[in-house]
Amino acid sequence: MPVSCSSCGEKRAALKRPKTGHSLCKECFFMAFEEEVHQTIVNASLFKSGESVAIAASGGKDSTVLAHVMKVLNERYNYGLELMLISVDEGITGYRDDSLETVKRNQQQYELPLKIVSYEELYGWTMDAIVKQVGLKNNCTFCGVFRRQALDRGALMLKVDKICTGHNADDVAETVLMNVLRGDIARLRRCTAISTASEGEGVVPRCKPLKYAYEKEIVLYAYFKKLDYFSTECIYSPNAYRGHARTFLKDLESIRPSSIIDIIHSGENLSVREGVKMPVQGTCSRCGYISSQALCKSCVLLEGLNRGLPKLGIGKHHRLHGKILSQQPLTEKEERKLKSVEF
Amino acid sequence: MCQVEEDYQPKLQRPEEHSVSRKCVKCKEELAAVLIRAGDPYCRSCFRDYFTHKFRAMLGKTRLIFPGEKVLLAISGGPSSSAMLSQVQQGLSQSAQKKLRFLPAIVHIDEGGALGLSLVERQRLVSELQVIFRASGFNFYTIPLEQVLDLPSSVVNVAPPSFDQAPDSYKAAVDVDLQGAGRDPQQGGGVPEPRLDESQTRSLQQLLGSAATLTARAELLSTLRQHLLVHTARTRGYSKLLLGESCSRLAVRLLTCVSLGRGAHLAQDTGFSDCRFGDVTLVRPMREFSAKEIAVYNHMFGVPTVIIPTLDTKMPEKASIQRLSQSFVSRLQQDFPSTVSTIYRTSEKLQTAGGGCSAQDGRCLLCVCSVDTAAGKASALQARLISEQLCCQEPAGTVQVGPTPPAGQCCSATDGECGRPAGGAGCCSSHFRAPEKKELQKLLCYSCQLILRDMSSVAHLPQYIVAEAERRKRRSLMKDEISEFLLEEEGSS
Predict the structure, then answer these.
(1) Per-residue pLDDT for B407 more than 50?
(2) CATH code for the structural domain at A44-269
(3) Do A138 and B262 touch (CB under 8 A)?
(4) Is A11 exposed, middle or buried (0-12, 13-18, 19+ CB in 10 A)?
(5) Cα–chain-centroid distance for residue B244?
(6) Is the predicted pLDDT of residue B354 greater than 80, yes or no?
(7) How does strand A15-16 pair with strand A23-24?
(8) Measured between CB atoms, does A240 come within 8 Å of chain B?
(9) Which pLDDT tens digit goes with each residue over B35-89?
(10) Distance from CA of B269 to the nearest CA of A (A)
(11) Contacts of A188 in chain B (CB under 8 A)
(12) Residue spans per domain, chain A
């Protein structure tokens, strides 16, 4: 028996919304989805008129949908924004080179300027080379840290005012869960913020307009709008710790669909006791990027890679910062600790 | 790898030594009998000292329980609470210097009615427990959960604490206690339990049955249990309630609370002390003991336990959020042995937003924690409300729900507004009105709203909750009327 759309009541319902369980027709779903993103942008005052905004595009579903929705809303509501695409090439064969083709297609479809930054040109290392040195367990740390800096460098080269990323509600919920499991109280406090703080040189503020959009709804949107995206997982991802948080979240969603928003609500309302030690924001003494230690994480990781000490940067290494800065050689015991790697 | 600032220990990469004939790490003489963490074998007596010392240190360090204070131990019969009981028994019988100085009594809530156990089965379990309680020599109360339907509505309100709990007064109280040694020894007997009424059991089952999901049912059950415990403590003059939750259980509880949207109340749900009720403080002294340590202790020193099934016994993994979190943490613990302690340490660093134990107004009707539904400009709650509005044809508020009050009542207005304050036999006889879901939602915190959402009907809610909801509604209507004349916010009603 055909169900009619619960919003317009006229057309036949084509889908059931994962977020609320209502049955909607295609047009009402598009309207609801876009309207929600618009409300998020307006309520959080993410953009100001006349700003130039870089959309971090990876060719995956989140960034494709983000680019599409940003373009639609920019025209519909006259945000007055100048949009462009940034993409990062990590150098993962079989994954990134394919998705970059998708980004180039997106650029033509949406008629937005595109800039690609690669790890090779910024750091001299591709992810494949890094995995050969580091192994399969800690490589996600390298990729994530390097990508963050790469995005910022690319944004500075383009001279934009803001970056927006395609993080969706599932990503934010997974991050909250992961930080609880790892005991990272500092990140737990910050991870539900919709945009990062905007002070400091060399830092471009970034925001997540899709923060309250479910991943399943993004896929539904892309499917019905026939948007073109690249849908494989990174080949190194099965070993990441985040995978555990992800399976837990998927199971939670099957028990209670509102769990994702509930977790974000929990994360937003957390309050940390006074007197708990928090990192203080400063700058890296080598490259000038923002950092809470003497050396920023990517400098430490790079140093480790270049010296053939892959574990430098994973685990506690504050005491070694001074030594690295002053170019002193490390003692043999320290070298031994940092070198051993299991595959 | 799973921890943020983790130091890699080289010794984990060495081949495992034989753990069979190792010496105890503390006294270095005896043969080790138990391996607690990766590198710590203990002999029997050192383990017992370690366990006892940890328990005493938890109580002594926080200086929460005053000498001579009446304390209620909530014993479910499971391993953690039985170990707690055994520790308290030991602690009270020691030499005067290190003696625990409070006056304990035991309470057990018999939940068999909620689980559908037969009367015979329930009586058997309770009598097994009563044998253990009698052996302890303390006063004990075994109360069936059906009693929760008869509670007064004051149980969900915060009451001011009965005596001064400042830290300086702790030392003074200890000195006084040491001098005046003579205290009446406890009789140690049970209070005769009330007769079980079939209809009450049925009402309780209907209430729990109206919650459609197991998650909501489990939360509702634990809320009712908490209300009953607090009421027992209040009416019999106990100012502290000791709960026997272990570290493993609290780690699972933390993850569950985050998943249920209780992020604002994490500190109260999993912290050492929970003062949301004002006069009765909930204390969790078994917080630092992992389930493994407790199991080993119970086994080695013959602590008697009675296993009573709960709502999610023998349920599949995805039956409820609580059950899923438990299996998730256990599975993760196998691969990453520091998971439970890391999660536990996270809970220590949290606090309740806005100083939880203060204002009376703005408390949730069910869990008595502060209401966290002030939808900020850009928040998850706001996003949710927007989504719901966008999917419905007309705003939900226009639909009229709820019965009109019967003829002969003084409230002629359809929503039952009555300006007169509630007296004992006030003009609005609240038990003729079924509560509306929407009205109740306003009085609840985020996660309790989710429980209510899962309930198919609110007609079976206990009388005290309905009465309290009515009272708060009347009071907020009064406040709206005079809001322009009020000069400052009141702290308590």
Answers:
(1) no
(2) 3.40.50.620
(3) no
(4) middle
(5) 10
(6) no
(7) antiparallel
(8) no
(9) 877 678 888 888 988 899 999 888 888 888 888 889 999 999 999 999 999 999 8
(10) 13
(11) 346
(12) 44-269, 282-336
- Beta carbons of A251 and B256 less than 8 angstroms apart: no
Segment A194-209, tens digit of pLDDT: 888 766 566 788 899 9
Number of alpha carbons in the 13 Å side-chain half-sphere of residue A328: 10
Contact A250, A243 (CB under 8 A): no
The identity of residue A13, as a single letter, is A
Locate tokens 């919920």: which residue? A173
Q: Cβ of B21: how many Cβ atoms within 10 Å?
A: 8
Residue B349 tokens read as 């660093």
Tell me the average pLDDT across B11-16: 47
Tell if the CB–CB gap between A31 and B390 is shorter than 8 Å.
yes
The pLDDT of residue B278 is 84
Look over chain B and give the mean of its residue pLDDT values, rounded to a whole number. 79
Give residue B460's identity as a one-letter amino acid code: H
Instruction: Tell if the CB–CB gap between B446 and A270 is shorter than 8 Å.
Output: no
pTM of the predicted model, to two decimals? 0.85
* Mean pLDDT value of segment A74-82: 91
pLDDT of residue A115: 87
Averaged over B453-469, what is the pLDDT? 88
A270 touches chain B (CB under 8 A): yes
CA distance A236 to A92: 9
In tens, the pLDDT along B156-208 reads: 887 777 665 565 667 777 776 666 644 445 556 666 666 677 888 888 899 99
Closest CA to B258 of B406, B417, B446, B113: B446
Q: Which one of B11, B270, B336, B349 would you mutate to disrupt binding with A, by most A Cβ within 10 Å of its Cβ?
A: B349
Structure tokens at A75: 């025209």
Helix (H, G, I), strand (E, B) or coil at A27: helix
Q: What is the pLDDT of residue A187?
A: 85
- Measured between its terminal Cα atoms, the distance across chain B in Å is 51
Residue A191 token pair? 């991870």
